[in-house]
Design goal:
Blueprint lengths: L3 E12 L2 E12 L3 E9 L3 E8 L2 E9 L2 E9 L1 H6 L16 E4 L8 E8 L4 E8 L3 E13 L2 E12 L8 E2 L2 E2 L3 E14 L2 E12 L5 E12 L2 E10 L13 E13 L3 E12 L12 E10 L11 E10 L9 E8 L4 E3 L2 E12 L5 E9 L2 E12 L2 E14 L2 E14 L15 E11 L1
Parallel strand pairs: 1-29
Antiparallel strand pairs: 1-2, 2-3, 3-4, 4-5, 5-6, 6-7, 6-8, 8-9, 9-10, 10-11, 11-14, 12-13, 14-15, 15-16, 16-17, 17-18, 18-19, 19-20, 20-21, 21-22, 22-24, 23-24, 24-25, 25-26, 26-27, 27-28, 28-29
Amino acid sequence: MKKIIVMVSSITLLAGNARADFQASVRFSDFQSLIARTVLWNDSAKAFVLAENEKLLGWGFGSSFFTIGSIRLSGLLRELENPMGYQAASSVFTEKTQIALAPSFQKNPRTGLEISFFGDILNLYIIQKEDEKSMAGLFLKYSFIPDITQELILDMSIVPEKPETGWFYNGLPRIPGVIGSAMHRLAFTGKGFRIVSDIALSAPENAQVGWFGAVSGSLSISSLRLLTMLCLKSEGYAATTGTLQEEALVCSLNADMAFLKHFVLGLNYRKSVPHKVPVESAFWEGNETFGASLDIYMPDSFVSYPVCKLGYSGKRSGGPLVLSRDRESCTLSITPLAFDWMRLTASGKVMWERDIVSGTTDVSLEFKVGLVRGNISYAIDLDEDGVFHSGSALLQIDMGNWSVFVKSQTRKSVSIDEIAVPAGEKDTLDLLVFSFGGDLTI
């Protein structure tokens, strides 16, 4: 169990008419490793360095025309990596294609360089994702007609051969070598609606040319909001990771409707249909996920969050060579309104989830009373091997610019063979761990 202490220092630097903000953070984990991050930024640029002990984990510099270092992707760059992996509500269909710094406390697998021209209209990039692939290309953003925007990306990826995985990568068929890709996006935005069309081609060095197409849309009418998505691809279309995804078609629908002023009903559905796959992958025949939720808001309340959430979700997945992997779960979340009593503010939240198929049950409680906040959770897992109990608790005290916390975690497993053993002869716990730490801001 990790024991974490975080210290943050923020300073504003002034030099003539220039202004820059400086933040230094230090995190101790397990009292063995020390992670330090330094971030310097102003209105037009940002730079950061992330290191653990004596090892450099990440670095970067970004401005309106130049970005280099640890990065994250969005828009078409993200869709090219996983074209069939999204649903109607995914932000990938609405966000702009761009490369941005990723100054988080975790190591980022991507390092890249981007140069922008003509006010971000033309962008050139080079990206290295650890040992998985290298990418280079350009993307354009342009609009000749009001309310209609277009984006075009041309990419060349080099996927290295991995003898240990052969032609399979993360369980999917994989093509090593050079892969050329092109994707175009046409987005039309009007009053209360948006339609997005994506069309792509892939030309792998060691396979046939493939195509991909996606249409997504959103519609808002009074208290009703609809999100739809349909994706199609040929069997030979290769993602920039070199994978040949098995889906031939993916459709998705999300709907939200407000009624009686205090209720919001949500529905979601996603269905995927595979190509005719070889025997090695015949364990899968596609899957479908579905769900419903009901959010309840307090009458005449000043808060924007629902005080009660009811949810149901399910998944169907399987194939001829294995048992179907079905899953159904119900959730309940209650968040009472915060209240003040003798200058003491209190609030809380209770969550319950049960998997109908497996019998797994999770219960958690979050609370805050004055300067003290915490959460308590408990889960019970049932399967063919036995019963598994687990729990955790967190207690934290916040005092303005500093805070301290203590955390515990416990786990107990009872196999089918142990159930018949007298209680006195069983082990009481498989795991019992305590940890503590704190934050300090100067």
